């Protein structure tokens, strides 16, 4: 695709003949992905290796200038974004209205649904997905909107079983949204700062699977996770403890020597069914 320039009278065929982006192969069709990401996200996600791999597969990443009208940029085949704020959402909604041919990953309303750890999981709970390959569920959880002094009574009333994982209710990609704590006793829960969600801790052998889904593509990776909490540890410990991002990319367990019962990947047919249901219910790619 030739990117528009001043003397471009009409959009030529999707060939890279007069492109202003480096020295690319002539006469090669590209899918143009316009991206709007924070500088932190560009650094952590858009590595040169990824850009090179994408280019070899005919995909070109082009930065969206957030200081210029989106419609004056491109043309794009896809807009990939991870920005927050009402203004950006309005810009994107207007762009979607005037550019129905462009795939926006993902529609702002759908993402809003995922910015909350209650609504994010509600669609999984509603799915009630269970078949011969397995069952998909969510930990029992309780949302605390305000008044931390009410937490112990609320936990007792809900019948949640300790230990509990405390997570900010808002999951907007901010550093604060990743500040998680592990609570061993109810009384200490009063130290937490609502709004938050309290989830029962689910022992899972210290390994978790991160499943990445784009369209029909599913990629599963193993990551180290919080270790199991035994009843003995629970009886000996008290308090609330902040823990780091234990399952980040650096905590890969793909090549670790693990017990097969812990390392066995989830059945592919179950993941495919889950992915299909999530995409349908969440209206995301
Ligand atoms: N209910 C739970 N039971 C046991 N461990 C849990 C539970 N919830 C979270 N964890 C542990 O906490 C880690 C982070 O949890 P979660 O993925 O919900 O937070 P996050 O901030 O979204 O993480 P990420 O860094 O992937 O964005 C998980 O990798 C897992 O180790
Ligand atoms: O294990 P990964 O690297 O996939 O974890 C991601 C995580 O899934 C989220 O995408 C995080 O993005 P935010 O929610 O916007 O924070 C990523 O955080 P980042 O700070 O590394 O971009 C995690 O890496």
TrEMBL record:
Highest taxon listed in the record's lineage: Eukaryota
GO molecular function: ATP binding; inositol-1,3,4-trisphosphate 5-kinase activity; inositol-1,3,4-trisphosphate 6-kinase activity; inositol-3,4,5,6-tetrakisphosphate 1-kinase activity; inositol-3,4,6-trisphosphate 1-kinase activity; magnesium ion binding
Catalytic activity entry: 1D-myo-inositol 1,3,4-trisphosphate + ATP = 1D-myo-inositol 1,3,4,5-tetrakisphosphate + ADP + H(+); 1D-myo-inositol 3,4,5,6-tetrakisphosphate + ATP = 1D-myo-inositol 1,3,4,5,6-pentakisphosphate + ADP + H(+); 1D-myo-inositol 1,3,4-trisphosphate + ATP = 1D-myo-inositol 1,3,4,6-tetrakisphosphate + ADP + H(+); 1D-myo-inositol 3,4,6-trisphosphate + ATP = 1D-myo-inositol 1,3,4,6-tetrakisphosphate + ADP + H(+)
Co-factor(s): Mg(2+)
Residue sites binding ATP per the record: 117, 167, 199-210, 225
GO term, biological process aspect, one: inositol trisphosphate metabolic process
Assigned protein family: Belongs to the ITPK1 family.
Domain Inositol 1,3,4-trisphosphate 5/6-kinase ATP-grasp: 132-283
Keyword vocabulary terms for this entry: ATP-binding, Kinase, Magnesium, Metal-binding, Nucleotide-binding, Transferase
Protein's name in the database: Inositol-tetrakisphosphate 1-kinase
Stretches with biased composition (Acidic residues): 1-11
Quaternary context: Monomer.
Sites where the protein binds 1D-myo-inositol 1,3,4-trisphosphate: 41, 82, 178, 210
PANTHER family xrefs: INOSITOL-TETRAKISPHOSPHATE 1-KINASE, INOSITOL-TETRAKISPHOSPHATE 1-KINASE 3
InterPro entries: Inositol_tetrakis-P_1-kinase, InsP(3)kin_ATP-grasp, ITPK1_N
Region feature (Disordered): 1-20
GO cellular component: cytoplasm
Domain Inositol-tetrakisphosphate 1-kinase N-terminal span(s) in chain numbering: 32-111
Signal peptide (from-to): none
């Amino acid at each position: 695709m030739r990117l528009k320039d001043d003397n471009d009278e009409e959009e030529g065929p999707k060939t890279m003949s007069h492109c202003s982006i480096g020295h690319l192969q002539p006469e090669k069709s590209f899918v143009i992905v316009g991206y709007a990401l924070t500088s932190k996200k560009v650094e952590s996600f858009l590595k040169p290796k990824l850009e090179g791999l994408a280019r070899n597969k005919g995909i070109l990443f082009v930065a969206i200038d957030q200081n210029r009208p989106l419609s004056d940029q491109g043309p794009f085949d896809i807009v990939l974004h991870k920005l927050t704020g009402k203004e950006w959402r309005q810009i994107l909604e207007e762009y979607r209205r005037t550019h129905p041919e462009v795939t926006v990953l993902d529609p702002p309303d759908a993402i809003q649904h995922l910015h909350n750890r209650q609504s994010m999981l509600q669609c999984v709970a509603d799915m009630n997905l269970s078949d011969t390959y397995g069952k998909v569920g969510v930990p029992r959880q309780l949302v605390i909107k305000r008044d931390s002094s009410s937490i112990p009574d609320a936990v007792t009333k809900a019948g949640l079983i300790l230990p509990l994982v405390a997570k900010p209710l808002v999951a907007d990609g901010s550093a604060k949204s990743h500040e998680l704590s592990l609570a061993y006793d109810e009384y200490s829960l009063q130290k937490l700062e609502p709004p938050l969600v309290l989830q029962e801790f689910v022992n899972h052998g210290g390994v978790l699977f991160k499943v990445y889904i784009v369209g029909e593509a599913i990629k599963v990776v193993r990551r180290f996770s919080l270790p199991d909490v035994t009843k003995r540890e629970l009886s000996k410990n008290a308090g609330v403890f902040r823990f780091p991002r234990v399952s980040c990319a650096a905590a890969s367990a793909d090549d670790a020597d693990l017990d097969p019962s812990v390392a066995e990947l989830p059945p592919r047919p179950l993941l495919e069914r889950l992915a299909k249901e999530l995409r349908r219910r969440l209206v995301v790619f």
